[in-house]
Amino acid sequence: MPNPRKLFRINVGFIVHEEIGSSHEIPFEFDKVKLDDFQLENFEGSVNIGRTPQGLVVLGKFSGNTTLECVRCLNDFVHPLEWEITELYAFNKKSVSESGLMLPDDAHIDLAPLMREYALLEVPINPLHTPDCKGLCIECGQDLNVKDCGHSQDDGDYPFAVLKKLL
């Protein structure tokens, strides 16, 4: 049973002593989970840990929802994420992959840092709650998705308006 404070810390010592090619599937399902500073809801997934001559191969597939802020209108919205991980926890320094992961002496691996990194790679750089988000009025700040304030959004009175003429 995982430590309640470290939900993704797994004792893999029993797999180390099994035959090459053996593997174990470990499912996860949580209403809310926090990976350091990154929070997910409706989290589910599974990890398959397989024994190889070089170490333990960890294959995982996960999904969950996170709250993001739309870059145009600044409203929060729920965004679904799906991601996979594939990493090798090497038995010795000779077998270490480019990720540099080695199996600790106590045979407990914590997947949380890996899961966080891979999940963050799936977060869009410019998140939009809908592709046709109108954003905020450049003059008064009104959310144009809610109501049109009547101001012109093509006002040429901004610092980079001169550059638009070059197009």
Brief rundown of the structure:
The protein has 167 residues and is mainly beta. The protein is built from three helices and six strands.
- How many helices in DSSP terms? 3
How would a textbook summarize the main sheet?
4 strands, antiparallel
> Rg, please?
23 Å
Number of domains: 2
Helix fraction by DSSP (H/I, runs of at least 4): 10-25%
Q: What order do the strands of the largest sheet run in, or round the barrel if closed?
A: 2-3-4-5
Order of helices and strands: EHEEEEEHH
Characterize the quaternary organization of these chains.
single chain
Distance from first to last alpha carbon: 62 Å
Structural class: mainly beta
Compute the average pLDDT. Answer: 88
- What general outline do the C-alpha atoms trace? elongated
> What's the count of strands?
6
What portion of the residues fall into strands of 2 or more residues? Answer: 35-45%
Low-confidence stretches: none
Overview of the molecule:
The protein is mainly beta. The protein folds into 2 domains: 9-132, no CATH class; 134-167, no CATH class. The protein has helices at residues 13-16, 112-121, 161-166, and strands at residues 9-11, 23-35, 38-51, 55-69, 76-90, 108-110. The strands form 2 sheets. A 4-stranded antiparallel beta sheet has the order 2-3-4-5. A hairpin with a 3-residue loop joins strand 3 and strand 4. The N and C termini lie far apart (62 Å). The mean pLDDT is 88.
